[in-house]
Write a structure and sequence with these properties.
Strand order of the largest sheet of chain B: 1-4
CATH class of chain B: Mainly Alpha
Strand content of chain A: 25-35%
Mean pLDDT of chain B: 94
Helix content of chain B: over 70%
Radius of gyration of chain B: 20 Å
Distance between the termini of chain B: 54 Å
Largest sheet of chain B: 2 strands, antiparallel
Number of helices of chain A: 10
Strand content of chain B: under 5%
Number of strands of chain A: 10
CATH topology of chain B: ABC transporter involved in vitamin B12 uptake, BtuC
Oligomer: heterodimer
Radius of gyration of chain A: 17 Å
Order of helices and strands of chain A: EEEHEEHEHHHHEHEHEEHH
CATH architecture of chain B: Orthogonal Bundle
Structural class of chain A: alpha/beta
Shape of chain A: globular
Distance between the termini of chain A: 36 Å
């Protein structure tokens, strides 16, 4: 049984159907990626899973339980955490406070988790007392990932983690995604950077204007001529 | 010269403290909801009316004062749940109109209950006692107010900067949606904000009305407006700003009230000019100047957020 199962998910924003009935599965321990163009519904899918937007139809099942229709708080408490698009760190909180607020629902000792995040991102430790608004884009992205890890997620959803970052920083982010994968965290990754995303993904879906298109392993889609043409560009000289 | 100014300065500091306790409610609610809670001055007035009726019921003061604080906090909570929460995703203007509606509802409710009569505010012993400090003879409440205000403000700042709920308040004030993703219940955080603001307004009301003989349904309008100006002056959304703004306005108002006497004794003028009339006008002129010259106030943050 898959960790996350979505069937016939439809979401509309005031008459415009952003998702037209998609079904997908995320297996435990996998990295699953959703690729697609702007406005394809990638972010909406993640927002629907985390309970931020209401579903029109469809069910979302997580770990055998139906979670669709639950509040975002309830869904977070089940271990589904999101790294939102555009980082969205709290600029008026310090780096440390951003990490602590990531563990808002936890009652137990969070010190080991803070140490773990600092070990993954030593830069954050150096800047622990700095306001998050003063960090660079890459550091904010690391903080957003670290903040999500504080809940000890079973399923980590990342929305465009590479957006607007320098190539070297993007490489760092994907290195971290691999590390988290090795630690056993299931990852649902939404990316426009299809090339990088497909390289790390065990399984991948292509989303086209609210509907699912192709599906396969990351490797399969990476070598698919249609994907190459539409999402990878012709000069994929690697 | 100093002996002439001192009594006005002292009462200015005291009134400033009372404005500060009201202004914090405006600034906190604005900080989290971007809403000017026009009903806040009326909550302050209702606290006074509740005190009148509780005292008339014969309960001892050590019961009525805490009860006033609790009831006022509950009213603040209720107003938010009934009039603002259902409009969470509505345009900001709708919420503001709802706030004006709450303001009139409270005033008319009190008008109905009291029949529009001035209600005698109970005399609270000890804080109503006279004291003489230097050249000023005043009620003890004048001295207690600024001290109590500072203590409450320090406690509030600690609450916001050092506790988990305070951290959640700061997070919610920046980003509702991401706060929800952290598992924060934004409605609870907003309720805490309203409860805190109303509680402080109730404290302010006990101190304020001790200096005035009566309460009527419009008693909240003027102090409410003054506190609002103080919040804007200090930079709405900023708690230290609201407090400093309130003290400045309180002091300036009272100095202007005494300006005739001060100038006369200093030999600058030979007959009274009636300058005291301008003490209210000063506050509102200040509002206009601030809005024109520095709309973000003394400590307000810029409207543009770094993305």
């Amino acid at each position: 049984m898959s960790l996350l199962h979505i069937s016939d998910l439809r979401v509309s924003y005031g008459g415009i159907e952003a998702l037209k009935g998609i079904s997908l599965d995320v297996e435990k321990g996998e990295i699953v990626t959703l690729i697609g163009a702007n406005g394809a519904g990638k972010s909406t899918t993640l927002r629907a899973i985390s309970g931020l937007v209401p579903l029109k139809t469809g069910t979302i099942t997580y770990d055998g339980q139906v979670i669709s229709g639950q509040s975002p708080q309830k869904i977070v408490s089940e271990g589904i955490c999101m790294v939102p698009e555009g980082r969205r760190v709290f600029p008026n909180l310090t780096v440390l406070e951003n990490l602590r607020i990531g563990a808002y629902l936890r009652k137990d000792d969070i010190q080991p988790d803070i140490a773990h995040v600092y070990q993954l991102f030593p830069r954050l430790k150096e800047r622990s007392w700095q306001l998050a608004g003063t960090l660079s884009g890459g550091e904010q992205q690391m903080l957003a990932v670290g903040r999500a890890l504080m809940m000890r997620p079973k399923l980590l959803m990342m929305d465009e983690p590479s957006l607007g970052l320098a190539p070297l920083v993007i490489r760092d982010i994907f290195r971290i995604i691999r590390t988290l994968h090795e630690e056993g965290i299931t990852i649902l990754l939404v990316e426009q950077n299809a090339n990088a995303a497909l390289r790390v993904a065990d399984s991948a879906y292509v989303l086209e204007t609210g509907s699912l298109g192709m599906h396969g392993t990351g490797e399969e889609l990476l070598n698919d001529p249609r994907v190459k043409e539409a999402y990878l560009g012709k000069s994929r000289g690697q | 010269m100093w002996n002439t100014i001192f009594p006005y300065l002292l009462s200015g500091i005291s009134v400033g403290g009372q404005y500060a306790l009201i202004a914090i409610g405006y600034t906190m609610v604005y900080g989290i909801l971007r809403l000017i809670n026009f009903a806040h001055g009326d909550v302050f007035m209702v606290a006074g009316i509740v005190m009148v009726y509780l005292a008339a019921s014969g309960l001892p003061l050590y019961v009525t004062i805490p009860l006033v604080l609790v009831i006022t906090a509950a009213i603040g909570f209720l107003i938010e749940r009934v009039a603002y929460k259902p409009l969470r995703s509505a345009p900001r203007m709708s919420v503001m109109i709802s706030a004006i509606g709450v303001s009139y509802t409270l005033q008319n409710l009190v008008l109905y209950i009291t029949g529009g009569l001035n209600k005698q505010y109970p005399t609270i012993p000890w804080i109503s006692d006279s004291v003489t400090i230097g050249s000023a003879t005043t009620k003890l409440v004048t001295v207690i107010t600024p001290v109590l205000t500072i203590v409450l403000v320090v406690a509030l700042v600690l609450l916001i900067n050092k506790t988990k709920i305070g951290m959640a308040m700061r997070a919610v004030s920046k980003d509702f949606e991401t706060s929800q993703l952290m598992g924060i219940k934004i409605n609870s955080v907003i309720s805490v904000t309203f409860v805190t603001g109303s509680f402080l307004a109730a404290v302010g009301s006990v101190l304020y009305f001790t200096n005035y003989p009566t309460v009527i349904q419009t008693s909240g309008a003027m102090p409410g407006l003054k506190a609002f100006v103080a919040a804007v002056f200090g930079g709405i959304g900023s708690i230290p700003g609201a407090v400093i703004g309130a003290f400045i306005i309180g002091i300036m108002e009272n100095i202007i009230k005494g300006l005739d006497v001060i100038l006369f004794k200093a030999g600058v003028i030979s007959k009274p000019l009636g300058l005291a009339t301008f003490s209210d006008a000063f506050t509102f002129a200040l509002l206009i100047i601030i809005l024109v010259v520095k709309p973000t106030g003394l400590f307000g943050e810029k409207a543009t957020d770094k993305v």
